[in-house]
Amino acid sequence: MAIAGGFLASVLTMASNSGQAETHIIAGLLVLTGIGLRIETAIIDTRG
Fold it and tell me: Whole-angstrom Cα distance, residue 26 to residue 43?
């Protein structure tokens, strides 16, 4: 869900062409959080 939110925020800011870097930083953090959660889940699932 965080990955989709990050991509959506990035697409919306690119479409509006606001030029603010803060929104892209927040979108990047959401994507990284989503990837981290997926990795954590994969590690937990392999442990059983």
Answer: 26
Of 9, 3, 48, residue with least CA distance to 26? 9
What are the domain boundaries of the chain? 2-47
Count of CB atoms situated within 10 Å of the CB of 10: 17
> What residues contact 11, with CB distance under 8 A and at least 6 apart?
none
Whether the pLDDT of residue 2 is over 70: the answer is: no
In whole angstroms, give the CA distance from residue 37 to residue 18.
30
Length of the chain equals: 48
pLDDT of 46 reads 81
